[in-house]
Amino acid sequence: MSRRWLLIPVLLSLAGIAAGMAWVDWSKGGAGSGLYSREWQPDPVQGYWDPDRFYQPVASVEGVFPAAECIACHEALTPGIVADWRDSRHSKPANRAPVACPDCHGADHRKLRMPTPKVCAECHAVQHEAFQSEKQYGFPSHVLAMERATDSKHFVDKPKAETTACVQCHSVATKCDSCHTRHRFDAAEARRPEACTTCHSGPPHPDDETYFGSAHGKRYLAEAQQTDWSKPLRKGNYAVPTCAYCHMRNGQHVVADKSIWQFGLRQVNPNTAENKVKRERWVEVCTDCHDAGFSRRNLTEMDRERAQAWQVLNRTERLLRELRSEKAFYPAAGERPPYPTDWMEAWFPKERIGFFEGQASSFYNVSPIERDYFEMWYFANLGSYKAAAHGAPQLVKEGHEALAHAEKSISAQAGALRNKARGPRPDLRPLWMEGEYTMHNRKHN
Amino acid sequence: MRVVCLFLLWLVALPAAGKTCVECHAGAAERSWALSKHGVIARIEAGRERRRAPDCTGCHSVEAQAPTATHYAGKRSRAQAREAATESCRACHSPRYTTEQNAAAQRGLAIGEMKQREAEALVATARRETAGEELARIESLFATLRDKNLRELRLGLAHQSPDYQWWLGQAALDGSLLRIKGTLGEARRNRAVAATTGK
User: Fold this and answer.
1) Angle CA(A55)–CA(A58)–CA(A63) in degrees, nearest 5?
2) What Rg value do the Cα atoms of chain A yield, rounded?
3) Which residues of B touch A44 (CB under 8 A)?
4) How far apart are CA A80 and CA B94, in angstroms?
5) Per DSSP, which regions of A236-368 are E strands?
6) What share of chain A in percent tops pLDDT 90?
7) Measured distance CA(A53)–CA(A45) in Å, rounded
8) Using one digit for the tens of pLDDT, what is the confidence trace for A219-255?
9) φ, ψ (nearest 5 deg) of residue A69
10) Is the omega angle on the peptide bond into residue A331 within 30 degrees of 0, that is, cis?
11) What ranges in A171-272 are assigned the alpha helix state H?
């Protein structure tokens, strides 16, 4: 008798799981893509960034063409890409027929496709398999980058004309020419650090500045023109490491295997069993040139930098949480626009403080002190981390000065907010809820 | 006579000959190009005979390939300059691609300009309501929004740099806009406080 009662919660849980899976499946069936695909329409240009899902062939030219005819027309129409292709290995591979236009785009001009990683995988299976294998590591990884973008609430919420900027970089998951630009597709190009900087630059991930500011980067700049970049990324082939040399061991198309998840964004313990294994993989890379002890000491130095940064960040986060419990934010979460996708927030407005509360989306429609913390955490903190990881001590110093300066400024603002918290509180809703862009954003995403 | 003429011509051309665009257009204009895929390719492949990707003159000087004759862009309307620059895109990109990318850039810029107009309206309100330090701060935030954030968005869109479009463009515009709102709100509260304490 009692066993039969046990069945009820089991069956209910199973039904719940099935309903959840059905809901996720349903939510991915909209006009957009990802978890919130029913909430947004793609911008027309999205087809170029996520061709598998959004590219529409053009119907203006009719006919099925062999390569020679494609080349004959496009030599006149778009001579640059034909010349690129002629310079590429695709046009003159050893021991096989050239890989020409129809092999990647199809031959029927009204059904042309923009090549996706799956298309490249027809020949480059090893690279594609390695690239796909990144899924096992979760974020951050190249292969999951597009999902990372489209599953973010701020991506869904903001006008698509604005978030086109996001998918340009996050398309590293959906096209191969982010690193091997068309129509040359040169491995040598992707071995150069500049190839990564279109995306790995700017306030939250100044990988370019921190690498070029390191001893490695300075030597690269001095020697790049005299280096033969056609050699594989193996020990002994290069005098100075580049992004791909360290992050893509032996040229493998995997950047996520050594990365410690969210090492810059959260306070992560570098000494868990798993992280120790990853650390040893890093040391193995460094020992291509350096002594293992030297490498470990440098990585320990980075741990010290992280601990220092988190002392400052934790103090500031604690202060902001105190302000929230004292209801001192002005405007508070309920007095400014919520995300349309976030129904919970419409009922229970709450300021997002810290990684687990969605700090990454707290850069718009928040009060100035919250934006200041966003910039402290996302710009100054990540800049310091990148500088420490890439070995640019001057930039570590500057990053920590920026953290200290931000803490001081946030503390001063917090003091002022506290002093005024008990006094009069003019209604800020018209100021924050209205305005041309704010109202446009509420209706359009 | 011919020798003298040539010598004079040489003298006139001398200051321009050694100059590169970057000497005047350093900073955001250069960097937004350098970080784009065009800039990356042009930098990596500098010195090669065939140019795969455009540098400044590749787009801004269609009619005159000589670097000294590039300054026509500023004397035209933005639309004319864009059309002229788009000519050079077509050496590699299809007409549909350039049209779509241009249209997407226009839409992105329209959003940025919407943020600017929202901020402008707030500045007008601030000029009526406030004065002194609070107004000066709002004016200075607006100057950053218009002269830095919106400019960098425009450069990011024109040069196809995602970083300039997003973190230095749209997200930076958001930051300046919310700080203007924050300062204006604080000014209102300060006046309310002053009214209750009878100052």
Assistant:
1) 125
2) 26
3) 100, 103-104
4) 11
5) none
6) 83
7) 12
8) 999 999 999 999 999 999 999 999 999 999 999 999 9
9) -75, -40
10) yes
11) 187-191, 194-197, 207-212, 215-223, 243-247
Nearest chain B residue (CA) to A197: B35
CB contact under 8 A, B44 and A164: no
For A347-374, the pLDDT digits (tens) are: 899 999 999 898 988 999 999 999 999 9
Helix (H, G, I), strand (E, B) or coil at B83: helix
In this predicted complex, what is the ipTM? 0.93
Of A270, A256, A23, the residue nearest A133 (C-alpha): A256
Sequential pLDDT tens for chain B (199 residues): 555 544 444 444 444 444 588 888 899 999 999 999 999 999 999 888 888 998 888 887 755 343 333 444 455 666 766 677 777 888 899 999 999 999 999 999 999 999 999 999 999 999 999 999 999 999 999 999 999 999 999 999 999 999 999 999 999 999 999 999 999 999 999 999 999 887 5
Q: For residue A158, which residues of chain B lie inside 8 Å, CB to CB?
A: 170
CA A268, CA A287: separation in Å to the nearest integer? Answer: 25
Which two three-digit tokens encode residue A286? Answer: 């460094």
- A168 with B162: Cβ contact below 8 A: yes
B51 vs A380: CA distance, rounded Å: 38
Which of B43, B103, B108 has the CB atom closest to A194's CB atom? B43
Predicted pLDDT at B160: 94
- Closest chain A residue by Cα to residue B50: A83
Residue A204: exposure state from Cβ atoms within 10 A (0-12, 13-18, ≥19): buried
- Asked if the Cβ–Cβ distance from B91 to A79 is below 8 Å, we say yes
Cα–Cα nearest to A340, from A438, A432, A251, A262: A438
**Three-state SS across A364-425?**
CCCCHHHHHHHHHHHHHHHHHHHHHHHCCHHHHHHHHHHHHHHHHHHHHHHHHHHHHHCCCC
Per-residue DSSP letters for A74-97?
Answer: HHHH-HHHHHHHHHSGGGS-TTS-
CA A187 to chain centre: 22
Is A375's CB within 8 Å of B175's CB? Answer: yes
Give me the residue label for tokens 């799981």.
Answer: A17
How far is B20 from A263, CA to CA, in rounded Å?
41
Contacts of B181 (CB under 8 A, 6+ apart): A431, A432, B122
> In the numeric block, which tokens belong to residue A384?
């310091």
